[in-house]
Write a structure and sequence with these properties.
Elements (H helix, E strand, L loop, with lengths): L1 E7 L5 E4 L1 H10 L4 E7 L5 E7 L4 H13 L13 H10 L2 E7 L2 E2 L5 E7 L5 E10 L1
Antiparallel strand pairs: 1-8, 2-7, 3-5, 3-8, 4-7, 5-6
The structure holds zinc ion (ZN).
Length: 132
């Protein structure tokens, strides 16, 4: 069964820590041992794992992504949000996390971030946990 996490973003580009919400799904499904797939079904958003201890880390990642992929350029896509599509492809649409004892097995400083690239929008994230 696929669970849906809802994320309401407030900025054009933004990282939002969704680790706790993903872990709630793991606990709900009582996954002693398995894997958890976190999937973003959008073309202008993504998901990544990185440091949440220092909020400067996601800020710096966004800063550099916005520098190397500027909002204004000679893009062809008529919707006008090509940089958001490009960032989404670079970051990726899914992450897979190991689950043990009903907990996500992440490194000490790691968190799962929803990555908004064309906000603000109401977004969703699909989570599928598999035992075994
Ligand atoms: Zn578009």
């Amino acid at each position: 069964m696929v669970e849906t996490i809802y994320v309401n973003t407030t900025k054009r580009t933004q990282f939002i820590d969704i680790t706790t919400k993903v872990e709630e799904v793991v606990k709900k499904h009582n996954i002693d041992d398995g894997i958890c797939v976190v999937y973003v079904p959008h073309t202008t958003a993504g998901v990544t794992i990185n440091e949440n201890a220092d909020p400067s880390v996601p800020e710096d990642i966004l800063k550099i992504l916005n520098q190397i992929i500027p909002w204004q350029a000679d893009y062809k896509h008529l919707e006008g949000n090509s940089p958001a599509h490009i960032k989404a492809s670079l970051i990726g649409s899914s992450v897979t996390v190991i689950v043990e004892n009903n907990r996500l097995v992440l490194g000490t400083w790691q968190a799962i971030f929803f990555c908004e690239f064309d906000g603000p929008r109401n977004r969703k994230v699909w989570v599928k946990c598999i035992k075994g």
